[in-house]
């Protein structure tokens, strides 16, 4: 019954009010929904909507409650309440009831308007961004000071990492350097006392003297280990020189010279095959000697000048089905052009003849062009082996003896299975007294690179000729160790007619060879021609006779020279390598090692107290001593500086951004949370009916209105609490956690090095206190008290002016052109401040000017 009655009353009130003031709907049923808050920025529409609705409600309420005691609406007729227990007649109840119902509905509308206004002013002004900035600023300062206070704790926690060299962005250079110098020093000291000591060299030399062919493996081992030790010493010397920086270039050159020799020896010792070079004057019998070694006439040997092209005999290599027999390598275009342009004139040649010869050479090359870059000869059909071999011989002889080919063919390589010894090749070069300059140069070059050389001298000649002496001198000057690998071969002594002439020539040649540095055990008198002759021929018999009768030297000279050569390659040569290595160490390493050890002391490259402790202990001690400085310089100061500058950035450089963000975040979040708060209605009339029953409805609405507003204030304060927590949570994450991340990123060695004592709870409380200090008076002034209770409301407004004058001024400023009664009331009270002056009055009045 009451519900029906009330509903009808509500509808009637709504229709009447609509008739009177269309812009001020007072019924909750027809009231437009509250404006939807913008999520991203404070909407202009929102201001507009609030402006009009608050204006309207203030003017309507003030009319209703204050200025006009009679209801503004035309009289409404209310049907008598059905089923009422009242003893009064319905007409007697009608008028007071109508007044009470109107007043209740107006109060309900007023609550809705006040809610909107309260939400608007809290959303916009409850958060003072600069206050928030000060709050955050204070927090960051607290963090900075915590970080500073914990400086020593962090240092302590990181010191182990420092000792273990785990601080990845710090350089440990100094210790590394000392460690390296120390290691080099120790290594040099050990080398000086062991492998570079006099005893060690004596031992090695003894070993060499007594070494048997069986000790070849041991010799190889000694060689290799010595090479690697010398290499290490060289690296230490070089390192020390660089550290001392004393090294004038001379010392560098000196070391690199040793290094070069070392690599040369290493290369020589690891060579798979050795090269034996046969040198001597023209017609000394070089090619004949080689043929004798092979046991048949492979190379051309003749009484006139014969070998023109460098020829090398190599062990046979099987190449699939084909037996590779010979390879002729031609000079390339560039090489040929150089030779051809510089072709020297022969002693008996005029310019014209030279030009003709040059032309002939060019033509000969042109004819061979299709065979470039090399021509190969091999047995194509093994069934015709002998015939094909003869043909190849002829062809090769043509090349070897053809003077035209000197500048065309670089080398002729002949592969044969008749080489007498293992792993060596024989090199036949033209006589070095040849009028062709290229021949002389080739001779010298060949000796330089050969493992051994056989110097053939014609024993028939009375003494060594000038070119022979010059060549030998040159060899000895350029290669001090060359005579170790030189063999002297005296040839053609079988041509002597008598035993006496033989003996005389032999003695002379032998003496001259000894004088030139040949070792006596490396000198032989040979008759290689005999090896190639048919034992039935006359010449063989004559030579054999002479050999038997002329003396021991000649008899088995060739065989002995061949055996000596084999032995030299297999056994003596590795020995000479080791010998040279030993000499290199003794003559070139001992002194520099002693010098560098002195230098380390003299320049104090190593600390004195290193003598009393191990390098590890020393470095540990060093590190402990340097840790304070390192920590300050590399860890604490950079971390602090970075945190500090971040702080400055937040509170100074990005102050405006901070203010906008904070304001926007609070506004959006608060408006979001108040949606359902704004949508609820307040049926004061119904509440009064339920509480006091119809008959007593003529009572004042004011107590019910106040109770309702009380509940709403509590509800709104709760929403402010929630929003404040949301904002505080944002501050915590952004600034407190952000600070920790910055610090811990600067010291990535311990990810959780810094943890602040400023808790989320503390942040929540402090933010909350600041926001509520402003928001609570706002709720009181705007929503808590009805305009029916004007004195109390005025007190609340005055509190707002005193507690949050800026917010009050803002409300007035936004309402400047409107008749908002809250704004009007605030302004009025600000004017009244004059009557009761206190210290804050002038400040407040200034704000409102
Ligand atoms: N009786 C005798 N004749 C020899 C001996 N060695 C070489 N001949 C001869 O001396 C001549 C020249 O010998 P080669 O072997 O061609 O001399 P070469 O040193 O190679 O000469 P080039 O290549 O022109 O420098 C040939 O006729 C050989 O037969 C020897 O020991 N006794
Ligand atoms: Mg020859």
TrEMBL record:
What InterPro entries does the annotation carry? Dynamin_N, Mitofusin_fam, P-loop_NTPase
Q: From start to end residue, where is composition biased (Pro residues)?
A: 69-82
Positions with biased composition (Low complexity): 55-68
Query: GO molecular function, one example?
Result: GTPase activity
Q: Where is this region: Disordered?
A: 1-91
Where is it mostly found? membrane
Q: Where in the cell is it found?
A: Membrane
Keywords from the UniProt entry: GTP-binding, Hydrolase, Membrane, Nucleotide-binding
Does this entry carry the keyword Phosphoprotein? no
Top-rank taxon of the source lineage equals Eukaryota
Per the record, the GO terms for biological process are: mitochondrion organization
Q: Does the keyword Membrane apply?
A: yes
Dynamin N-terminal domain: from which residue to which, for each copy? Answer: 276-492
Q: Name one GO cellular component term.
A: membrane
Could you tell me which PANTHER family the record lists for this protein? SARCALUMENIN, TRANSMEMBRANE GTPASE FZO1
Q: What is the name of this protein?
A: Dynamin N-terminal domain-containing protein
Q: Which organism is it from?
A: Adineta ricciae
């Amino acid at each position: 019954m009451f519900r029906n009655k009330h509903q009808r009353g509500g509808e009637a009130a709504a229709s009447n009010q609509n008739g009177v003031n269309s812009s001020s709907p007072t019924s909750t049923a027809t009231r437009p929904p509250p404006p939807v808050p913008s999520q991203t920025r404070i909407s202009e529409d929102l201001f507009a909507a609030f402006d009009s609705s608050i204006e309207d409600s203030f003017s309507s309420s003030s009319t209703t409650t204050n200025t006009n005691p009679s209801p503004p609406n035309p009289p409404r007729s209310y049907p008598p309440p059905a089923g009422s227990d009242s003893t009064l007649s319905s007409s007697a109840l009608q008028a007071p009831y109508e007044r009470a119902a109107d007043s209740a509905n107006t109060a309900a509308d007023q609550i809705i308007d006040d809610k909107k206004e309260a939400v608007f002013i809290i959303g916009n002004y409850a958060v003072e961004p600069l206050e928030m900035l000060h709050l955050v600023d204070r927090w960051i300062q607290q963090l900075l000071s915590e970080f500073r206070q914990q400086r020593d704790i962090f240092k302590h926690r990181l010191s182990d990492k420092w000792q273990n060299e785990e601080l990845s962005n710090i350089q440990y250079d100094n210790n590394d350097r000392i460690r390296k110098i120390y290691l080099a020093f120790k290594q040099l000291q050990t080398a000086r006392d062991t492998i570079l000591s006099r005893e060690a060299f004596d031992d090695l030399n003894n070993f060499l003297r007594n070494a048997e062919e069986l000790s070849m493996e041991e010799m190889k081992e000694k060689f290799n280990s010595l090479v690697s030790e010398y290499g290490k010493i060289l690296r230490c010397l070089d390192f020390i020189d660089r550290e001392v920086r004393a090294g004038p270039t001379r010392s560098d050159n000196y070391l690199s010279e040793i290094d070069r020799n070392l690599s040369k020896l290493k290369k020589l010792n690891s060579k798979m095959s050795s090269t034996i070079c046969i040198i001597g004057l023209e017609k000394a019998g070089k090619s004949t000697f080689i043929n004798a070694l092979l046991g048949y006439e492979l190379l051309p040997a003749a009484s006139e000048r014969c070998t023109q092209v460098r020829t090398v005999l190599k062990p046979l290599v099987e190449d699939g089905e084909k037996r590779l027999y010979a390879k002729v390598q031609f000079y390339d275009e560039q090489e040929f052009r150089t030779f051809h342009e510089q072709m020297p004139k022969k002693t008996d040649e005029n310019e014209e003849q030279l030009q003709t010869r040059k032309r002939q050479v060019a033509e000969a090359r042109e004819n061979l062009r299709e065979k470039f870059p090399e021509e190969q000869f091999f047995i194509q059909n093994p069934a015709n082996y002998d015939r094909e071999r003869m043909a190849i011989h002829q062809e090769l002889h043509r090349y070897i003896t053809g003077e035209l080919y000197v500048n065309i063919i670089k080398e002729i390589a002949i592969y044969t299975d008749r080489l007498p010894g293992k792993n060596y090749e024989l090199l036949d070069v033209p006589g070095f007294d040849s009028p062709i300059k290229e021949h002389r140069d080739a001779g010298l070059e060949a000796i330089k690179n050969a493992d051994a050389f056989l110097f053939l001298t014609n024993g028939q000649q009375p003494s060594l000729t000038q070119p022979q002496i010059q060549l030998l001198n040159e060899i000895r000057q350029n290669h001090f160790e060359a005579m170790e690998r030189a063999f002297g071969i005296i040839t053609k002594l079988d041509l002597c007619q008598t035993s006496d002439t033989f003996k005389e020539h032999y003695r002379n040649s032998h003496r001259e060879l000894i004088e030139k540095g040949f070792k006596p055990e490396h000198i032989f008198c040979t008759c290689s021609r005999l090896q190639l002759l048919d034992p039935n021929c006359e010449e063989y018999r004559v030579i054999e006779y002479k050999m038997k009768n002329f003396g021991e030297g000649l008899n088995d000279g060739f065989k002995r020279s061949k055996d000596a050569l084999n032995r030299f390659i297999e056994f003596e040569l590795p020995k000479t390598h080791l010998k040279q290595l030993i000499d290199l160490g003794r003559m070139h390493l001992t002194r520099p090692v002693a010098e560098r050890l002195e230098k380390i002391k003299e320049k104090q490259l190593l600390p004195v107290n290193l003598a009393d402790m191990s390098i590890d202990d020393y470095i540990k001690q060093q590190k402990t001593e340097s840790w304070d400085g390192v920590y300050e310089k590399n860890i604490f100061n950079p971390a602090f500086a970075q945190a500090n500058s971040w702080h400055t950035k937040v509170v100074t450089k990005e102050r405006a951004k901070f203010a906008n963000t904070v304001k926007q975040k609070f506004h959006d979040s608060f408006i979001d949370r108040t949606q359902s708060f704004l949508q609820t209605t307040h049926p004061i009339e119904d509440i009064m009916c339920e509480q006091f029953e119809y008959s007593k409805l003529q009572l004042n609405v004011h107590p019910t209105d106040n109770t309702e507003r009380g509940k709403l204030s509590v509800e709104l304060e709760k929403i402010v609490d929630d929003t404040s927590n949301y904002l505080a949570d944002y501050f915590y994450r952004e600034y407190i956690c952000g600070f920790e991340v910055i610090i811990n990123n600067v010291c990535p060695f311990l990810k959780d090095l810094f943890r602040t004592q400023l808790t989320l709870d503390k942040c929540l409380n402090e933010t909350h206190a600041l926001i509520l200090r402003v928001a609570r008076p706002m709720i009181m002034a705007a929503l808590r008290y009805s305009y029916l209770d004007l004195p109390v409301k005025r007190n609340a407004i005055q509190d707002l002016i005193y507690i949050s004058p800026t917010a009050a001024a803002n409300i007035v400023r936004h309402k400047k052109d409107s008749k908002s009664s809250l704004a009007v009331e605030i302004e009025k009270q600000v004017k009244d401040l004059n009557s009761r002056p206190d210290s804050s009055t002038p400040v407040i009045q200034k704000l409102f000017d």
